[in-house]
Amino acid sequence: MNSSRFCAVQVKLELGHRAQVRKKPTVEGFTHDWMVFVRGPEHSNIQHFVEKVVFHLHDSFPRPKRVCKDPPYKVEESGYAGFILPIEVYFKNKVRNAVLSISLHIPIKFFRFLL
Fold it and tell me: Where is each YEATS domain found (predicted)?
């Protein structure tokens, strides 16, 4: 096999979340508004490399499987407790399927001390 036909591409991703305490809980009892995201560092464009990002929310959320095929790759919700949020990043790759699986812990109680 001729290795000169293959090349490697390094794609840097920034994964994060933020939460804000609501002034007043919702009727459902949600105390925080939060957002989770996958993006390029310094908001660089990653859409040429990323096919889609799948966020697997806790089963208590409506539509717990959220698929973002276009930027911004993010989910915004309200809640009252922390949970583990599995994230799958699917890359555009014609040679083989490339998927990055990540689990992000969203510790809602922690945010009370940050804000």
Answer: 3-115
- What is the DSSP track for the chain? --GGG--------EEEEEEEE-SS--TT---EEEEEEEE-GGG---TTTEEEEEEE--TTSSS-EEEE-SSSEEEEEEESS-EEEEEEEEE--SSS-EEEEEEEEE-HHHHHHH-
| 37-41, 50-54, 99-103: segment of lowest average pLDDT | 99-103
| For the chain, percent of residues with pLDDT exceeding 70 | 82
**Cα 100 → chain centroid:** 11
